[in-house]
Amino acid sequence: MRTKTFLWKMSRQMQGKSRLVGGVQVIARARVPLIKFFHYPTGLWADISTEQTHGLATSSYLTNMLTMYPQAPPLILFLKHFLSFYRLNETAIGGIGSFLLSLMVVRLLQATADTQQPTRSL
What we know:
Layout: H1 3-15, E1 21-27, E2 34-39, E3 44-49, H2 55-68, H3 72-85, H4 98-115
Antiparallel strand pairs: 1-2, 2-3
Helix pairs in contact: 3-4
């Protein structure tokens, strides 16, 4: 079954689960076609994509980075809120998505940590 056909069928199934999800949208023209939806129990927006083999590896990498930099999650949440206020959080319309934002924050913290290392004088 083609990916886009599968996503449309899946979205119809999800729309039937009105107590769990809402705002189901298929974004078929994106580089990586996906379904975007709101998950009521957690109060979070989520995406589902298929045929992407790197999802688990990138998720594991980001989890490790957020463990190494515990100051990252609150900063990411603040920036996500700021971006959503200006509608700059939607990658489909040119905004910055959560994964990219998380990587940017981690890199900033890495660079800050690098510059704060004490220097030894001979």
